[in-house]
Specification:
Myeloperoxidase, subunit C, two-stranded antiparallel sheet, mainly alpha, two-stranded antiparallel ribbon
Length: 618
C-alpha cells in the first residue's frame, strides 16, 4: 500500500518536475516507484495456448538450467522456454498489427532516407567504446529472436501471409527494386479458439531467460554440438566448449539468406554474424573453459556433464552481472543510474556488506534482487515485443573500423562493416590478432542513437548475394514495429503514463530544425514511429538513449532477474557451488579481458569501466 501511495505521489510530481531533475535520493526513490507502477500496469500475457512440450536436455532440472529454458518456474514448466510467445508491455487490445494502407504511412523507406540515414559522417559517443555495440548484440541474441520470415513459396500458409510487403520507392530513390519487398514475420503457428479476436502473437525461437543461450543454444542438440570436435565428433573433455588449437571457435556452414551458404564461427546463436560478436563469443567460450578447469580442481571426481552445466550457470550469472553493473551504467552514465543498477545486483546496503555478511536481507531494494524469491508480478515471465522494439539500436554501429596494433597504435587495416561481417569475420584474424581487435574496439567510439546516424552499411546491407537482394535494415526496423503492433510514439508514451507531445516542437524539446523535418515527413505528431520519436526527443543528461525507451528498460531489466529462480531462490552455493558464487562476485569484464589477454593490462590500467574508452598504445 505504501509503494502504491508513493507511486501515485511521484506520478503527480513528475507532471511538473521530471524524475531526472530531482535531487539524488528523491530521484532514486522516484525510479523505484516508477518500477512499481510499470510492474503493475505494463505486463501482459499472450500465451493463450500451451507452448511446445519441454525438452529439458539435462538430468537434474532442479539444479541446472535446461537446454530449452523449461522448468525455470517449476510450477509452470513451459514459461519462458524456447518457442514460447513474446509478451506485451501495452494492453493486448492496443497491439493489433497495422494494415494497409496505414502500415506504409509514412513510407518507411522515406523515413530511412530522410530521417535516419547517416551519410558519410558518424556522430560518435565520446565517452563509450565500440564494445558497447558488440556487447549489446551479444545480449540481444540471448534474449530474443523472431522465427525466420515467411517465404513466398510456403504453400501451406495463407496467401496474404506469403505475400511480402511492397514499399514503393520515393522519387529519386536508386534502390535496385521497385517496389522494395520485405518478407513478413512468421506468426506463432499454434493458435487455438482462445486466440479468436486477439492480435497475432509471435514466438521467440530462443529461450526468454537470461541464460546465455547465445553461447549455448536453446536446444539439447545445440548444447551438445558446441562441445563436440567437428572433425572427430567427440565431446571435449571436462565439460569444455570446443575451441581450435588457436583458441578460436570452429567454422561451420550456415544459411546466409536467399539460398546461399557461407562459413561462420559455430556457437549457440550465430545469425547476423560480425567481428564484434566473434570477439564476445570467443572471450566467453574461453572463460567457460577456464571455469571448468577451476571446478575440476575443486571437484576432481565430477563428470563432464556436471562441469559443463555448472560452468554454464556461472557464465550466465557473470554476464548478467556485467550487463547490470557495468554496461548499463556506462550507457546511462548518471550518478542515480550507477547507484540504481548496482542496487539491482547488490542492494542499497551495497557490495561490501553483501560480500562481508552474505545476502541476509531478502529485499530487492535493500539487498538486491539476487538471492530473493522469484516474482513474476502482473504476468507470467516473457520477453516482450516492446522490449524488442526499444532495443533497436543499430545506430551504435560504425560503418568503418580502423584496426590498429595494441603495442604502438600503428594502423593495421581499415575495414568496412561489410568486410568484417558474415564469413569475413573469422578471416580478419589472418590480418588482425584477437588482442589487436579487442584493443581497436576499446579505443574507437560507437554511434549516437539519434536521427541521421543509422549506418549506411545497414541501409544497403548486401547479404553476400547479388545486390538485387540487398536489405535496408532501417526501413525494416520501422516496418516491423508497425507489423507487430508496437504502438507509435505518442500512444506508446500514454501507455506508460508519460505525457504525449502535442506538437513536433514539444517532442523535440524546442529543436525547431528537427521538428520541421519530422513535420515534413509525418504531418501529424501522432503518426511518429517509436524508433524515430525516441531518437528525436531530448534525453536526460548522461543518457545514451531516450527516457521513453528507458521506462521499458527499468521494467524489463529487473524482471529478467526477479523472475528467474537461478538469480533468486536458487542463487545459492548448493546450486552454483561455492566456487561459482565467488567467481561471479569476484569478477567483472576487465577481469575476464585480462585473464585471457594479459597484454591489455597497460590499456586497462586505472579503467573504471571496460566500456569506456581504453588507454591507447605508445
Amino acid at each position: 500500500m505504501l509503494a502504491r501511495l508513493l507511486s501515485r505521489l511521484f506520478q503527480r510530481l513528475n507532471r511538473s518536475v521530471e524524475w531526472h531533475k530531482l535531487p539524488f535520493w528523491i530521484s532514486l526513490t522516484n525510479l523505484v516507484m516508477l518500477r512499481v507502477d510499470l510492474r503493475t500496469h505494463n505486463l501482459f500475457d499472450t500465451q493463450r495456448v500451451p507452448p511446445p512440450e519441454p525438452d529439458p536436455g539435462v538430468d537434474d532440472i532442479r539444479a541446472n538450467r535446461t537446454a530449452d529454458g523449461s522448468f525455470n518456474d517449476l510450477a509452470t514448466p513451459g514459461m519462458g522456454q524456447a518457442n514460447a510467445r513474446f509478451g506485451r508491455n501495452a494492453p493486448i487490445s492496443d497491439t493489433f498489427a497495422e494494415t494497409e494502407p496505414g502500415i506504409l504511412d509514412p513510407n518507411p523507406r522515406l523515413i530511412s532516407t530522410k530521417l535516419l540515414a547517416r551519410g558519410d559522417t558518424l556522430k560518435p559517443v565520446p565517452h563509450l567504446n565500440v564494445h558497447v555495440a558488440a556487447w549489446l548484440q551479444f545480449m540481444v541474441h540471448d534474449w530474443f529472436s523472431h522465427a525466420s520470415n515467411v517465404r513466398p513459396d510456403e504453400k501451406d500458409l495463407p496467401e496474404e501471409l506469403r505475400k511480402p510487403f511492397e514499399i514503393p520507392l520515393p522519387d529519386g530513390d536508386d534502390w535496385p527494386e521497385n517496389p522494395m519487398t520485405v518478407r513478413k514475420t512468421r506468426p506463432d503457428p499454434a493458435r487455438g479458439p482462445e486466440d479468436d479476436g486477439k492480435p497475432v502473437a509471435y514466438h521467440n525461437v530462443e529461450t526468454h531467460w537470461w541464460d546465455s543461450s547465445q553461447i549455448y543454444g536453446s536446444s539439447k542438440e545445440r548444447l551438445d554440438a558446441i562441445r563436440r570436435n567437428p572433425k572427430t565428433g567427440r565431446l571435449t573433455p571436462n565439460g569444455k566448449i570446443f575451441l581450435d588449437s588457436k583458441g578460436h571457435l570452429p567454422v561451420t556452414s550456415v544459411d546466409m539468406g536467399f539460398g546461399r551458404k557461407g562459413e561462420v564461427e559455430f556457437t549457440g546463436v550465430n545469425g547476423n554474424w560480425w567481428i564484434g560478436l566473434s570477439l564476445m563469443h570467443t572471450l566467453f567460450a574461453r572463460e567457460h573453459n577456464v571455469i571448468c578447469d577451476r571446478l575440476k580442481m575443486e571437484y576432481p571426481d565430477a563428470d563432464s556433464d556436471w562441469l559443463f552445466n555448472k560452468a554454464r550457470l556461472i557464465i550466465a550469472a557473470l554476464i548478467a552481472k556485467i550487463h547490470t553493473v557495468e554496461w548499463t551504467p556506462a550507457v546511462l552514465n548518471t550518478p542515480v543510474l550507477r547507484m540504481g543498477m548496482r542496487a539491482n545486483w547488490w542492494g542499497l546496503i551495497g557490495e561490501k556488506f553483501i560480500r562481508g555478511f552474505g545476502r541476509k536481507v531478502k529485499s530487492d531494494i535493500l539487498g538486491g534482487i539476487i538471492g530473493t524469491h522469484p516474482d513474476h508480478h502482473a504476468a507470467p515471465y516473457a520477453m516482450t515485443e516492446e522490449f524488442n522494439a526499444v532495443y533497436r539500436m543499430h545506430s551504435l554501429m560504425p560503418d568503418v573500423f580502423h584496426f590498429r596494433a595494441r603495442a604502438d597504435d600503428a594502423p593495421i587495416t581499415t575495414q568496412s562493416l561489410g568486410q568484417v561481417a558474415g564469413e569475413n569475420a573469422h578471416k580478419l584474424y589472418k590480418k588482425v590478432s584477437l588482442v589487436d581487435a579487442f584493443y581497436t574496439f576499446g579505443t574507437e567510439h560507437p554511434g549516437l542513437l539519434t536521427l541521421h546516424n543509422f549506418p549506411e552499411s545497414l541501409r544497403g546491407l548486401d547479404k553476400q548475394v547479388p545486390s538485387s537482394r540487398r536489405v535496408d535494415v532501417a526501413t525494416i526496423d520501422i516496418l516491423r514495429d508497425r507489423e507487430r503492433g508496437v504502438p507509435r510514439y505518442c500512444a506508446f508514451r500514454r501507455h506508460l503514463r508519460m505525457k504525449a507531445p502535442k506538437s513536433f516542437s514539444e517532442l523535440t524539446g524546442g529543436d525547431w530544425e528537427t521538428a520541421s523535418e519530422l513535420e515534413e515527413i509525418y504531418g501529424d505528431v501522432e503518426k511518429v514511429d517509436l524508433l524515430v520519436g525516441c531518437a528525436a526527443e531530448k534525453w536526460p543528461e548522461g543518457f545514451g538513449f531516450s527516457d521513453t525507451a528507458f521506462r521499458i528498460f527499468i521494467l524489463m531489466a529487473s524482471r529478467r532477474l526477479s523472475s528467474d529462480r537461478f538469480f533468486t531462490s536458487d542463487y545459492t552455493p548448493e546450486v552454483y557451488t561455492p566456487v561459482g558464487i565467488r567467481w561471479v562476485a569476484d569478477n567483472g569484464m576487465i577481469d575476464v579481458l585480462l585473464r585471457h589477454m594479459p597484454e591489455l593490462a597497460d590499456n586497462l590500467a586505472g579503467a573504471k569501466n571496460a566500456f569506456f574508452p581504453w588507454r591507447k598504445g605508445a
